[in-house]
Amino acid sequence: MNGNLALQPKRKQDKQTVIKETKRVVVTRKSLPVQEKLLYLFTVVMCVLVAGVIIFRYAQIYDMNLDIKQLNNDYQQMNVEMEDLKKQVEMLSDPERIRRMAESQGMVSSLEGGISVRTGDSETKTAMSE
After folding, report:
1. Virtual torsion, Cα 100, 104, 109, 115, nearest 10 deg
2. Which of 27, 29, 88, 107 could disulfide-pair with 102, CB 3.0 to 4.6 Å?
3. Closest-CA residue to 118 (of 101, 103, 99, 96)
4. Can you list the alpha helix ranges (DSSP code H) found in the chain?
């Protein structure tokens, strides 16, 4: 036998290639019926609506929480302001302060009887009931 492949004699093709024809059966799927398509569409639309309602409600709750926080902050500020105003009322309603203010505006104590009004630097007139 020949040891070198290059020297091997070419083989003659005795047989012709036979092509076998095979038939394939192609199965086509039927499309979905109209009722089933409508059912799927209705299901998707309902899911979208439910999700939309849930998201809308969460947005409303979020807005309410923001309003509550804002009202709480306003309430605390009003309480601080009320405390300041109470201190001012207490300070302004001091009897000694009221007496000093009355004297600086020319009023005289009414403990003497009758109504007294200072008209000048040292003049005081008393009005008596007639």
Report:
1. -150
2. 107
3. 103
4. 34-92, 95-104
Structure tokens at 44: 């998707």
For residue 117 the two structure tokens come to 């009004």
Please give the structure tokens belonging to residue 101: 């203010």
To 5 degrees, how large is the angle CA 119–CA 122–CA 128?
Answer: 50
User: Residues 38-77: pLDDT tens digits?
Assistant: 999 999 999 999 999 999 999 999 999 999 999 999 999 9
Predicted TM-score (pTM) of the model is 0.48
Residues with Cβ within 8 Å of residue 110, at least 6 apart in sequence: 116
Cβ contact 114:128 at 8 Å: yes
* Two tokens, residue 95: 């009897």
As a whole number of angstroms, the distance between CA 120 and CA 125 comes to: 10
